Amino acid sequence: MENFRGMVARVKYDSELSVAGFCERVSKGDLDMSIILDHVLLSHEEVLDLCNLFIQGAPIHSLSVAECGIDDAGAVLIANAIRSSAFLRRLDLSGNQISSVGAVALADAILDSVSVSSVRIGSNKIGARGRDAFAKVEHASPELELLGLHPVSWVESVSRTGSAEIESKLG
Fold it and tell me: Which residues make beta-bridge pairs with 123?
C-alpha cells in the first residue's frame, strides 16, 4: 500500500461504536470506504495492487481513479476487480486512456456486478464499440447511473462543423 502516492481512504468512524465493533463493521463491509487516487499517475503494478484489494475482499464502496493514466490493460484488471467485489458501488475512471477494448471489458464486468450503481467513464477514447457496450449495460440496468457517455451535443456539433454547413442542412 505504500506505493500509492497521494492515496486517501475515507472511513467514517461512529463514536458510539467500540473499536472492536468498528473493526467488525469494516471487515463486513458495512462502512462506506472510498479510495481516491485522482490525478496520480499509476503504473501497471500499482493498478494490479489496487485491484488485489478488491479480489481479497476489501470492503471498498467507492473507487476514484480519474486521470491516472489507466489504459486498456488496467481497465481489464479493474474489470476483474469489479467481478470480485460485492461492495463496490461507485467507480470513476474518467480522463484515462481507455479505448474500446477496455470499455468492453468494463461494461461486461458491470453487467455481471450486483453492487455497482454509478460509473463515470467520460473523457476516454472508448469509441463506438465501447459506447455500444455501455449502452447495453444502460439498457439492462436502467437504475445504473452512467456518466460521461452521452453523444456529442448539437451545440458542440455546430461549433465544430461551422454554422454555414448547419444552415444548409436546415434549409
Answer: none
* Regions of the chain where pLDDT drops below 50: 1-9, 12-13, 152-171
End-to-end CA distance of the chain: 61
Polymer length of the chain: 171
| Residue carrying C-alpha cell 481516491 | 36
What does DSSP assign to residue 40?
-
- The reported pLDDT for the residue numbered 29 is 58
Residues 6+ apart with CB under 8 A from 126: 98, 99, 100, 102, 103, 134, 149
Q: pLDDT by residue (tens digit) across 54-80?
A: 988 888 889 999 999 999 999 999 999
pTM of the predicted model, to two decimals?
0.74
Rg (CA), the chain: 19
Q: Which helix (H) or strand (E) holds 48?
A: helix 44-55
Question: What one-character-per-residue DSSP string does 63-119 give?
Answer: EE-TTS---HHHHHHHHHHHHH-SS--EEE-TTS---HHHHHHHHHHHHH-SS--EE
Name the DSSP class of 149: -
Position 120 scores a pLDDT of 96
Residue 53 CA neighbour count, 13 Å, CB half: 22
The three three-digit cell numbers of residue 67, written as one number? 486521470
